Amino acid sequence: MQQVLQMLETRDSVQVAELAEAFSVSEVTVRSDLTELARQGLVARVRGGVRPLDRGQSELGFDFRLGLDVERKRAVAREAAKLIGDGEAIALDASTTAYYLALELRSKRELVVVTNGILIAASLADAPGINVLVTGGMLRMSAMSLVGDLGGELLKATRINKGFLGARGLSVERGLMDLNPDEVRIKQQMAEACERVIAIVDGTKWHRSALLSFVPSDAVQAIVTDESAPAEQVRAWNQHGVEVIVAEVHDDVPANVRPIDLRRAPPERGGNGS
Q1: How far apart are CA 13 and CA 7, in angstroms?
Q2: Do 62 and 143 form a contact (C-beta atoms < 8 A)?
Q3: Cys-Cys link to 150, which of 106, 116, 136, 163 (CB 3.0-4.6 A)?
Q4: What's the rounded mean pLDDT across residues 215-226?
Q5: Residue 58: pLDDT above 50?
Q6: Structural domains of the chain, ranges and CATH numbers in brackets
């Protein structure tokens, strides 16, 4: 089901017959899985297959995306963490790769982290050597991010050493790309506040495009990716003067790394007021 969702990020639809052949399962099994995806509100059923939801509704939730391509994201995060020294001020967007990067930073000292990611901020809240600055703004539940003018005003008054930004897709021609206009705007403002912009993208993002560009390729100083990134595109970025750091993927990734669930209602107080 995860692979079906990834296919729909770059296609208008997928068909039952092709999925059955691709995964060597029966069409009955495929239909059952597609029905479950539709029940969860992740796809729309069409005759013979499924299609993405309407563009405004097609973003997958943060929790679900956190479980996709975990080994690659963790590899990128480990390598990106090596670029961050104690005493620096850095920016992290609300991407899932940035969440994994935040987990790698907990042992840093005198680090200031500016983020619009609620769960990223929560993951660092009890790290003794890190001060977390949350941008503020309107909460987007699907991404657990804060967007809007409040965050932009804060970023205009802030100077940050390095910004680590995820992307839905990238190309030398269009730079870093994403889908949601609100996310794109806060990413642009975050990049403008940073002395260096570093893209954190696993190998799956190199094959994708998206509606909106938020950082042109000339403004990207480095890209951290994994070894599945296409060699010809890596060379193209290198020729464009952008350093591409390739992380080695390991299989020893802890299973079920889950963020703090801030969306759960707090427990009700007892009748004795305790």
Answers
A1: 8
A2: yes
A3: 136
A4: 97
A5: no
A6: 2-58 (1.10.10.10), 64-247 (3.40.50.1360)
Query: Is 12 within 8 Å of 55 (Cβ atoms)?
Result: no
Residues 6+ away with beta carbon under 8 Å from 115: 91, 92, 93, 94, 98, 102, 121, 132, 133, 134, 135
Beta strands 44-46; 49-51: pairing state:
antiparallel
Give the pair of three-digit tokens for residue 127: 């790290």
The CA–CA distances, whole Å, from 188 to 112, 215, 263 equal 20, 6, 27
Which tokens in the block code for residue 179? 């889908």
- Whole-model pTM: value is 0.74
The position carrying tokens 């990413």 is 187
Please provide the DSSP assignment of the chain as one string: -HHHHHHHTS-S-EEHHHHHHHHT--HHHHHHHHHHHHHTTS-EEETTEEEPPPGGG-PPPHHHHHTSSHHHHHHHHHHHHTT--TT-EEEE-S-HHHHHHHHHTTT-SSEEEEESBHHHHHHHTT-TTEEEEE---EEETTTTEEESHHHHHHHHT--EEEEEE--SEEETTTEEEES-HHHHHHHHHHHHTEEEEEEE--GGGGG---SEEEE-GGG--EEEEETTS-HHHHHHHHHTT-EEEEEPP-S-PPS------TTSPPPPPPTT--
Amino acid at 162: K
Model confidence over 259-269: pLDDT tens digits?
555 544 444 44
119-146 per-position pLDDT tens digit: 999 999 999 999 999 998 888 877 778 8
List the structure tokens of 241.
């003067």
